[in-house]
Design goal:
The chain is built from 7 helices and 7 strands, in the order E-E-H-E-E-E-H-H-H-E-E-H-H-H. By secondary structure, the chain is an alpha+beta fold. It has 2 domains: 107 residues, Ubiquitin-like (UB roll) (Roll); 70 residues, Alpha-Beta Plaits. Strands 2-1-5-3-4 form a 5-stranded mixed beta sheet, with helices on both faces. Helix 2 packs antiparallel against helix 3. The radius of gyration is 19 Å and the shape is globular. The structure holds iron/sulfur cluster (SF4) (2 copies) and FE2/S2 (inorganic) cluster (FES). The site of FE2/S2 (inorganic) cluster (FES) has 12 residues, from loops.
Length: 200
């Protein structure tokens, strides 16, 4: 077992665990959006940042991808962590302003509006990639992917056309933290599959 401290309390973790996994074992709350235990972590949203402190230095790390090691000192609620968390919520409110889920979560952490420009007020996808990862890693199909680049980046079936590859299992809808996939899934499934799913 590996021993280290979270918020000055000694904790133990197995080798290979992340800081987030350990914190959850001990009931310590760290907000996450792009993390799900069923798929590999990507560290996309950075909301799970925590501070690592030693005598002469400190740094912020994404707890969902940071592996534990002996003797580290992790802090989950320092001023630096709270500042970066608020900043990330503001970024999210500008990237996916129509997501009720993100708004509610941001409110819980004291963020009600964003200072960043809003490109599309109807956008609810934060491009976290959970939907594509669950389709590939759990369902084993890769029916959807991240398409285009930069501001045009989006999630969907190749060429944004309905695809027979999708079996309408709904895993991507369930895992989506912003509820964006619910309105997109009908453009992913082929009509045949959609009818099958409705008949089931
Ligand atoms: S649709 Fe949902 S799960 Fe997929 S990238 Fe967007 S926010 Fe993430
Ligand atoms: S509903 Fe389709 S796109 Fe979504 S996870 Fe299932 S197979 Fe993949
Ligand atoms: S939850 Fe860790 S980066 Fe998104």
């Amino acid at each position: 077992m590996i021993k280290f401290k979270i918020n000055d309390k000694e904790v133990q973790a197995r080798s290979g665990w992340t800081v987030l996994e350990t914190a959850r074992q001990y009931g310590i709350e760290i907000p996450t959006l792009c993390f799900h235990e069923s798929v590999a972590s990507s560290g996309a949203c950075r909301l799970c940042m925590v501070e690592l402190r030693e005598e002469n230095w400190s740094k912020l790390v994404a707890s969902c991808i940071y592996p534990v090691s002996e003797g580290i000192n992790v802090y989950t609620e320092t001023e630096r962590v709270q500042n970066v968390r608020r900043w990330i919520f503001e970024m999210l409110l500008s990237e996916c302003p129509s997501s009720k889920e993100v708004k509610e979560m941001a409110k819980k952490y004291g963020v009600f509006k964003t200072r960043f420009p809003v490109q599309n007020p109807n956008e609810s996808c934060m491009l976290c990639g959970l939907c594509t990862r669950v389709c590939e890693e759990v369902v084993g199909l890769s029916a959807i992917a991240t398409l285009d680049r930069g501001v045009h980046k989006k999630v969907g079936a190749p060429f944004l056309r309905p695809t027979e590859v999708c079996v309408a299992c709904g895993c991507c809808v369930t895992i989506c933290p912003t509820n964006a996939m619910r309105s997109r899934i009908d453009s992913v499934r082929s009509n045949t599959k959609m009818q099958l799913a409705k008949a089931a």
